[in-house]
């Protein structure tokens, strides 16, 4: 593809056509050189802290979406980095566009770990191993220095104070006996709840109407797509909301239909997982164009043409109709 500035010299329809052609023709296989060029990064916002202070350990992987599919498997992270460095908070993985105005194809997956240490010393943070397109790539090791609190040896050492008798306080008494009080209140509430239950049971309401028969997955999905079309979101300049709801409906259908975690995966990860499924290639290609256009609208602020907005809904309906499981024993709602 050309540089972003070249799009301004072309007409709107021609630019959209070139972009869709480039997205549709992207090869699902990434060269080994591209996989090796993706380097995960680990860095500390502070390499030296006091005992008990907190530091942030940032992990990130930057890659391009226009150079082939990228599958990233993050390392398993528990509640500690090492035995001396526990993790206080995990932001989990988030995908962003670091420069979406100038480069809408540049993506970054990032994760922030809040760490601390209660022992002074020099604690090594070992490399984190990522699996990127099947290859294992490690981050660089880090070193966290934990210092003790300085003691002023020029001051005199004070003796231990005598035992101080605390006067009676209702607040302290309630604090010491709150379990007994809470147990009594819970018993009273249980008795009241039992009384109300028995009273309502004596006035048994009529039986509820029979439940509606279960609806097949493809029928539910088609109804949801029809309801989305009736909202007329993109006609009200709500194209981002329109593509978001459309992809959520399609991803939910794919997750139930093919048993893949479609709601949690990126576009490239979902397409890679579906290559191993029974979905025909024609439907996979149609799905790829649909999801990549939605990513451009949601993340790169791409203004899709009216014909593209209408066509993507038609493609979603055709995808469901052509991949529906109509067997008598197919799963129902």
Give a description of the structure.
The chain is α+β, with helices and mostly antiparallel strands. Among the domains are: 32-147, Sandwich (Immunoglobulin-like), CATH 2.60.40.10; 217-323, no CATH class. The protein is built from 9 helices and 12 strands. Helix 6 (239-258) packs parallel to helix 9. The model is unreliable at 1-33 (pLDDT under 50).
Distance from first to last alpha carbon? 44 Å
CATH superfamily of the domain at 32-147: Immunoglobulins
Low-confidence stretches: 1-33
The succession of helices and strands, N to C, reads HHEEEEEEEEEEEEHHHHHHH
Number of strands: 12
The helix/strand class is alpha+beta
Note the beta-strand portion. Answer: 15-25%
Q: Helices and strands in order, then pairings?
A:
Layout: H1 12-24, H2 32-37, E1 41-44, E2 48-50, E3 54-64, E4 72-73, E5 80-82, E6 85-90, E7 94-96, E8 106-116, E9 121-125, E10 129-132, E11 135-138, E12 142-147, H3 170-176, H4 178-202, H5 217-231, H6 239-258, H7 267-274, H8 281-299, H9 306-323
Parallel strand pairs: 2-12
Antiparallel strand pairs: 1-3, 3-8, 4-10, 5-6, 6-8, 7-8, 9-12, 10-11
Helix pairs in contact: 5-6, 5-9, 6-8, 6-9, 8-9
């Amino acid at each position: 593809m050309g540089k972003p500035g070249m799009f301004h010299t072309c007409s709107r329809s021609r630019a959209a056509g070139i972009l869709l052609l480039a997205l549709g023709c992207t090869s699902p296989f990434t060269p080994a050189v591209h996989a090796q060029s993706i380097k995960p990064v680990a860095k500390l916002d502070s390499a030296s802290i006091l005992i008990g202070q907190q530091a942030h350990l940032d992990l990130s992987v930057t890659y391009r979406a226009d150079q082939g599919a990228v599958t990233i498997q993050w390392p398993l992270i528990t509640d500690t980095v090492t035995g001396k460095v526990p993790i206080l908070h995990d932001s989990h993985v988030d995908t962003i566009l670091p420069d979406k105005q100038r480069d809408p194809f540049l993506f970054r997956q990032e994760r922030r770990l809040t760490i601390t240490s209660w022992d002074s010393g020099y604690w090594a943070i070992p490399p984190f191993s990522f699996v990127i397109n099947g290859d294992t790539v490690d981050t660089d090791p880090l070193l966290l220095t934990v210092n003790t609190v300085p003691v002023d040896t020029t001051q005199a050492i004070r003796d231990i104070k005598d035992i101080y008798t605390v006067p009676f306080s209702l607040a302290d008494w309630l604090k010491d006996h709150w379990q007994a009080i809470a147990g009594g209140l819970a018993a009273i509430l249980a008795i009241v709840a039992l009384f109300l239950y028995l009273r309502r049971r004596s006035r048994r309401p009529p039986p509820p109407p029979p439940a509606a028969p279960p609806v097949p997955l493809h029928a539910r999905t088609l109804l949801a797509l029809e309801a989305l079309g009736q909202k007329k979101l993109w006609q009200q300049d709500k194209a981002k909301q329109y593509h978001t709801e459309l992809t959520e409906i399609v991803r939910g259908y794919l997750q139930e239909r093919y048993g893949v975690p479609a709601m949690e995966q990126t576009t490239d990860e979902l397409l890679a997982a579906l290559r191993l499924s029974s979905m025909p290639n024609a439907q996979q290609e149609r799905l790829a164009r649909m999801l990549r256009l939605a990513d451009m609208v949601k993340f790169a602020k791409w203004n899709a043409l009216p014909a593209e907005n209408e066509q993507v809904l038609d493609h979603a309906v055709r995808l469901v109709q052509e991949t529906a499981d109509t067997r008598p024993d197919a799963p129902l709602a």
